[in-house]
Amino acid sequence: MTNFEVAQQRLQNQRLAGEKFATPGEVVGWLGAVQSQDNAGGKWAVAQRINGMTEAAIEQAINEGTLVRTHILRPTWHFVTPQDLRWMLDLTAVRVKMKMASYARSLALDEAVFARSNDVIAKALQGGKHLTRAELGEALQQVGIATDDFRLGFLMGNAELDGVVCSGAMRGKQFTYALIEERVTPAPSLSRDEALAELARRYFISRGPATIQDYIWWSGLTIAEAREGIEAVKNELVEETIEGEIYWRSPTTQPAQLQSPTVYLLPNYDEYIVAYADRSAIYDEQHGDKLDSRGNVLFQHTIVLDGVIVGTWKRTIKKREVVIEPTFFVLLTPAQTDAFTQAAQRYGDYLGLPATIKYSEAY
Questions:
Q1: What is the overall mean pLDDT for the chain?
Q2: What is the pairing mode between strands 34-35 and 263-266?
C-alpha cells in the first residue's frame, strides 16, 4: 500500500470522502472523540462529515447536549457523545491528570484543593444551572479559593476530569458548564478491559490504516494499554505491513475510488491530521517554511487535495461574507483550483455567508 492509498483510505474511513453521516452525534460517535480545543474548528470538523450541515445546527446539538465538550483522552478539549463520556473518562482521566500534575503543583493545587473546589462548583451548578467560568470563579473566590495565575483553568479542567462538570449550553458566545449528573443521562458502564477494546476498535475502524504509535499518540494510553486493546479486537481488524511498519484498519474498507480532484478546507486539529503521530502519508515536511511562525501543521487550517496537504488557509468572517485567504505549497491546475473554489463555497454555506477568495499577489 502506497502513501497515497493510505491517505485515500483514511479520507474514506474518517468520512470526509464517500458515505457521510446524518447527525453530529453520529459523527462523534463514529470517531469516538473529536478534538475541539478550537471550538470553531471542532464544529467545522464535525460538519464536514455531514452533507449540508450548518454551524447553527452544530451549535444546536451542543446546546441540547447531543455533543458534550470536555477534557478527555489528552490534556485538551474534545467533543464526545453523552453515551461515551463516562467510560472514556474512567479510562483516560487518570493519565491526563498525571500529565498535568507538575504544573498543578507549581500553582499550589493538590487533591485537597481540588476536592474542595469540586464541591463548591457542584453546589453552584445544582438545579440545572449553566454558569460561565467567570461565574464559577466568583463562587470559588467567595470561599477563599484563589483563581489567579491560571488556577481557575486547572480547577475547571480537574472538575471535568473528575466527572463533575461538562459543557453546558452556550450563552451567546460564552461557554458554560453544567453538572454531568444533570446534563448527561447515565449509560451502561464498561469494565477496563471492555473500554480498552472499545477505544481501540473505534480508533482503527474510523481512522485506519494506522499504527500502534499513532494510536498511543491519539489516545494518551500507555504502550501496554494500547497493545492490550488491539489484542482484544485484532480479529476484527486487518493487519498490514507497510515499509516495515504494522498498520491496522477496518476489514470492510474497500479500495478507495474517490472523485479527483477534491479539496477539503480542514480546520486546525482536524482528526484527519491530529489523529496520527506519523503524518508523512499526508504532509511533506519540506513545506514547513511555508507555515506560520509556530511552524506546526497541527495549528494550521489546512488545504487538503485528494488526501494530501497542499496549503493552508485563513478566514475572516464579516457581516456579509467570509473572506478566505489561501497559501498554497504547490501550483494548482485549473481543475484543482475549481475544486478549491467549491470547497470555499461549502465553508460559506456552512456559515450561511457567501465566500470570497482572496489570493495572494504571488499566486
A1: 95
A2: unpaired
* Spans of all domains in the chain: 3-183, 263-357
Question: Is pTM, for the whole model, over 0.85?
Answer: yes
pLDDT tens profile 48-75: 999 999 999 999 999 999 999 999 999 9
